[in-house]
Amino acid sequence: MSFKGKKCLLMLKNPHKFNYVDLTSTGKETHQAKMAAQNKVILKSTLEFKFARKLDLNPDVISWQYEGFRIQYYDSQMKKFRHYYPDFLVVKKDGVNEDGSPRYIKAICEIKPSHQSINTNRISDRNEEDVINNRDKWYACAKYCLENNMKFEVFTDKSIR
Question: What is the number of domains present in the chain?
Answer without folding.
Answer: 1
